[in-house]
Amino acid sequence: MSQTQDESTTRSQPQRVDVLVVGMGFAGMYILYCLRQRGLTARAFEAGSDVGGTWYWNRYPGARVDVDSVQYSYNFSDELTQEWEWSEKFCAQPELLRYASFVADKFDLRRDAKFNTRVTSAAFDKETNLWTLETDQGDVATAPYCIMATGSLSTPYKPPYPGIDDFAGDWYHTGTWPHEEVSFAGKRVGIIGTGSTGIQAIPVVAEEGNHLTVFQRTAQYTTPARNRPMSPDEQREFNEHRDEWIREMYHTFNAMTGYPLPTKSIHDDSPEERRDFFEKRWEIGGMPQAMLATYKGVNVDMETNTVVADFVRDKIREIVKDPEVAERLCPPTDMPIGSKRPPIDTDYYETFNRDNVSLVDIKKTPIERFTEKGIKTADAEYELDAIIFATGFDAMTGSLLAIDIQTSDGSSLKQAWSDGPNSFLGLMVAGLPNLFTINGPGSPSVKANMIVMIEHHTDWIMDLIDYLAANDLNRVEADEDAQSNWVEHAREVAEATLMPVADSWYVGSNIPGKKRVYMPYFGGFEKYWKLCVEIAADGYRGFKLSRSGTKEAPPSVAAE
Ligand code: NAP
Q1: Which candidate among 91, 116, 332, 554 keeps its CA 20 to 30 Å from the CA of 266?
Q2: Residue 196 CA to ligand 1 centre (angstroms)
Q3: Quick one: pLDDT band at residue 5, thresholds 50, 70, 90?
């Protein structure tokens, strides 16, 4: 039985379901679908006013996906696949949000969700074997299982510059963009941040604003997306062969397909041959792999990495007419390409040839404060009518730690992660039974196609819930040793590469005081997926399964 939004209960009468879900982005929606298929009752809470997660919040100008749209789609329903057509290779945010809404309508998913409601705490009672969620709207809901579908990049970070309240103009964060239209026509706009978000927003805002000042701390490497309309034939072709594509995705590093893996070393080609090869890839564009997967070893070998990075730096010098601006846009030579999350762009470097765009190096002349008129750096004051923060997120851990998660015997997520995030497979944290995380730290998640990750993690968790019910068990917990071994393995894998070298949200260095740990698993999706299958086949090796609690029966699983 499910309850509708109107039936949501109050503190005095907790709502009891089989599974609680936090978040109604692409993960939360799929989880609800799966639970319903099993005849399990669920209650989801979502801070936004509707479904969509990332694509609900990030409405900034230029926001679009940078995985091919056809691959950034759910795979669980053939009917859904056949009914939906993408209009572009890399679709823009409004279309992605329409897709989320279409899915929610088609499977009637909103029925089990309460929107405009933020979960504030999650408490597990070891006696009753129940999680209890409380929300900022006064809801109380309980269930034996709780799944955190809170997103990896969902807690926006805004640097605490002094004087923000003095600024007389408007300011925005890209991750909480207003729903109403924002016009920059005739305005002097400043944007702070040149990560994937800034790189998408800057060319679009430059077209609209009277003047755009870009405040850049670290220059990024970006490569052309070469976005284009999708033809219906292309979509049809993909749909017809979807099963093969999905199979292929499961045998890749990042759960994406269609981009050939490198076969050669840089030493197999002369500098001229390399240049020709890079030029071809630059022309084709597409996902970052187009440039990164040119030669073997780009992620591990600095010499190879530098050859690729130097090509991008040469491209910047070729595209950007003012040599001084071009140099400012060239990423530092000690920052390997790919070690920050590689963006793709449409006319990013070209934008700096416009008369109405200027670039300020805030590593050299840091922002000191906001003033009534704009932004004051170490050597100038910039008068602005609007300021955009494209300053990123407290990634992977921020949204989980924002919820007070604890158990009746005194374990808490805050304490478990006081020395950096520990998780077994990115799915469970030792000491927190029956609590699952989708794309938690330690899963390949953000280094792969998020939709495939979401479906993989959810399916694995569903199988585990089925297994528990079938064996008259009701509690699962990650084993401390298994978790420590996984964390150590993930650390070794990352440290054998160039990935942790750069300061980035991957290592948490964008958040003052956050422990520096390379959070995603960089061993590749194929390896991870196979290990998850093996662990399940081995009776969930590394997880403690039990029948616990005195007052609760396990949820009954209806036949699928
Ligand atoms: P980000 O990659 O963390 O970039 C934040 C930017 O703000 C960086 O340029 C950073 O400079 C700057 N910054 C942060 N704190 C600052 C401070 N205190 N003072 C000055 N500058 C500061 O964040 P993002 O661009 O929002 O992207 C986050 C992630 O979201 C991406 O990596 C990607 O995974 C995802 N994303 C995906 C898409 C897509 O699929 N199409 C689009 C956008 C974002 P430093 O580099 O010096 O730290």
Answers
A1: 332
A2: 6
A3: very low
